[in-house]
């Protein structure tokens, strides 16, 4: 069986490799010539653990071919996966221009029946638009089925997640097309849910909104912990042991970011607004998340008695560890807010600056290594919990910083140890009222 995948970003490349692993022949289409050249040479244009070796394996085997020619991709197979981006527009709605472009390209290049599978996260109702865009671009009327197969992978463990999904969701208004796509996953042992298109899409949005809400909820409880000197980790583990709640996504911190939660939550709110539905819980989750940055920076400003002439060292720029993805990263928002309040920023990330030489952060001193960022600084501010930050020699940090202040945006550092070394340490809900235990 042949499969085509259009759009070779985090999702498209991982999906293509997953299908190769399942034994299919895949042609993957990418329009960005720089990315395409890298992929054709077996180099990943982004960082994702475990993908590099699979990429080389399947290129050598010939089970995976990358091309910039969409006609080649479409001619290759009856099943075409769309995995292009669907970023947010300023009003929160989804920018469907990439989806429209691909749909028109598919229609224009179509020569026989195709099952077009939308893996990109798209608002409910988009399937009808895609059908229309394809139809209008066809040179003569040709049959096409539309299927949605939303993706639930997490960057940083994308390969594992696609190879071991909790469930696979397939939506189509044509049971035969749904069955064809379902059969692609016959060797996988997870539950497969087959439903209509809108329901399948809403499963994706609901999952992301629920997870984001869980994080915002525990972050709000973290503020109550701060006020009363209670411990958020103990609250979270005590609550998470209730099997109705579960332990996941109850880690308090500086909040969520990335390429999915912010835009998917915004899109869901927008879908509600378009239908006169005020999604209060989701809106609150979004608001709490936006406020969380200010909550940390208010603490920072208070501890340093203002940020003028103060240097804040930001540790971690990607939105989470083990990825170079900086879309909607909390670190970028923290940097902007520190600068807005008069502070100066030094920044370190083990991955981002190497992978994104084009990234410009005006006024920010980019540190070459971890040590370079904390020298002479007034605050060590951890935003992204890269593993290497757990191995820091805090005795050395104490000697080299100007002010011994640590803000832990992920509640991962050893609060007791740092306080015993003389640091003023603040996470969220970590007995921050008691500076020296
Ligand atoms: N990244 C994630 O963690 C994740 C998880 C689940 C779902 N999703 C969803 O999957 C979709 C893709 O996300 P992503 O992070 O992989 O995006 P991305 O921006 O990393 O990749 C999209 C790729 O598509 C290419 N492209 C755009 N138009 C094209 C065209 N006409 N022909 C060929 N290539 C084209 C772009 O150049 C880019 O390389 C989005 O809808 C996203 O919401 C993402």
From TrEMBL:
Domain (UDP-glucose/GDP-mannose dehydrogenase C-terminal) ranges: 313-415
Stored InterPro entries: 6-PGluconate_DH-like_C_sf, NAD(P)-bd_dom_sf, UDP-Glc/GDP-Man, UDP-Glc/GDP-Man_DH_C, UDP-Glc/GDP-Man_DH_C_sf, UDP-Glc/GDP-Man_DH_dimer, UDP-Glc/GDP-Man_DH_N, UDPglc_DH_bac
Any single Pfam family the record assigns to this protein: UDPG_MGDP_dh_C
Record keyword 4Fe-4S present: no
Record EC number: 1.1.1.22
Catalyzed reaction equations: UDP-alpha-D-glucose + 2 NAD(+) + H2O = UDP-alpha-D-glucuronate + 2 NADH + 3 H(+)
Similarity annotation: Belongs to the UDP-glucose/GDP-mannose dehydrogenase family.
Name of the protein described by the UniProt record: UDP-glucose 6-dehydrogenase
An annotated Gene Ontology molecular function: oxidoreductase activity
Listed pathway(s): Nucleotide-sugar biosynthesis; UDP-alpha-D-glucuronate biosynthesis; UDP-alpha-D-glucuronate from UDP-alpha-D-glucose: step 1/1
Alphabetized UniProt keyword annotations: NAD, Oxidoreductase
Superkingdom, natural source: Bacteria
